[in-house]
Design brief:
The protein is mainly α. 66% of the residues lie in helices and 0% in strands.
Length: 191
């Protein structure tokens, strides 16, 4: 997975060499890790420069997307605890709420999806109970169709349940996922 980020920020000094290595396929593994690492660093610079206690007042809930995307970069890099912290910040510090008319009005479009990604980061870190709780919170928020893979969600939930020795619950969850999959329209099954 490669995270694509477009910012008008200064690229690292060695970005041209990294791109050239990627194009020449000198080190595919390293090249795949360079792009998310650079993106995570760019998000970190944005957070350092514009984040902090005033970020919500200055940019509104939309600033949460910076943390969300850095969390995705950390996931690709295998930094699951850091990813979880970013998704948690996206949720807790940048909720969609009504603000005073003199404040910045914006929406954190990743607020609900951050519950799912935080669950994935917890699961990847071996924190199965935490992951399962986050998956349940995500489902309770009634996420918009097409923003996630229901099959992946049910499979991940079932896996967490089985890791917690909740085999009957895991089997029921996996069966529910299969049953729901058979009810989907053909174009929805391709997700």
């Amino acid at each position: 997975d490669v995270v694509h980020v477009q910012f008008r920020a200064r690229a690292p000094a060695d970005a041209l060499e990294r791109r050239a290595a990627f194009r020449n396929r000198e080190s595919i593994g390293a090249a795949l890790l360079v792009i998310p690492a650079d993106a995570a660093a760019t998000f970190g610079e944005i957070i350092s420069t514009h984040g902090g206690p005033q970020a919500y007042d200055n940019f509104g809930a939309a600033f949460g997307m910076i943390y969300y995307h850095r969390g995705l970069c950390h996931m690709v890099l295998g930094k699951y605890k850091e990813a979880g912290k970013d998704f948690e910040t996206c949720i807790k510090d940048f909720p969609n709420k009504t603000v005073a008319p003199d404040k910045v009005q914006s929406i954190n479009t990743y607020h609900t999806l951050a519950f799912y990604q935080w669950g994935r980061s917890e699961q990847a870190a071996g924190e199965y109970a935490g992951a399962l709780a986050l998956y349940e919170k995500f489902i309770a928020k009634q996420p918009e169709r097409g923003t996630y893979s229901p099959g992946e969600l049910y499979t991940n939930s079932a896996l967490c349940q089985s890791k917690l020795d909740k085999i009957p619950e895991g089997t029921a969850t996996l069966t529910k996922g299969i049953d729901n999959f058979t009810k989907l329209k053909p174009q929805e099954k391709r997700q």
